[in-house]
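Q: Convert this sequence to structure tokens.
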Amino acid sequence: MDTLDYILFQIYPYIAGTIFLLGSLVRYDMSQYTWKTNSSQLLNNSMVFQIGNYLFHLGIIFLFFGHLIGLLMPHWLYPYVGLTVTSKQLLAMVSGGVAGTAALVGGSILLYRRLFHRLVSAQSLRGDKFILILLYVQLVFGLATIPVSAQHLDGSEMIALADWAQHIVTFRPGASTYLASVYWVFKVHLFLGLTVFLVFPFTRLVHIWSVPYRYAARRYQVVREYRTRAAARSERA
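A:
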């Protein structure tokens, strides 16, 4: 088990991270026109789909940043933000449970639509279906960690996971040893999370790099606001 842990949680993270970064750069350089979402909204844009879409994406975004902050926050910083080890774990369990459930409900809607809606399924690439299934399974295992965490409110599992992540991102040896006694469901959850990064450049997830962060500040919004005011004045007249 020590050897397997070393391969999966000491070597594999760097393989996944390297492919994640270099693969994204290579795809952008060589296949820029595939940098898109392959949206299927025109094929089926029902209210149920829209609800599922919002639940899934908002839940996933919250979980990503929650994991990022939770795993990489130094332990000495907890008291400065009003947290103890136990309260931090409870916060992670509650907020992660709510966000994970929302994402799972939304993912169920999207996965059913992707697999069983005739037009959407026919238009979908195999990679589209694969990444959605992978994320769905990852959500299931993520939620499965909550009952296990509830049995260790002293935060021992959480601290071990955080120590592992912080050793990985700072390139320190011995990271995998922190997971030696961690419950298996956490290891599966970590492995699936690393695999998401591994396959990221080869799936539709790559369009995340193209999020229009400056969209809200575009000038046309001022024009739109002007037109809205002008329309309001016309109606009053």
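The chain has eight helices and no strands.
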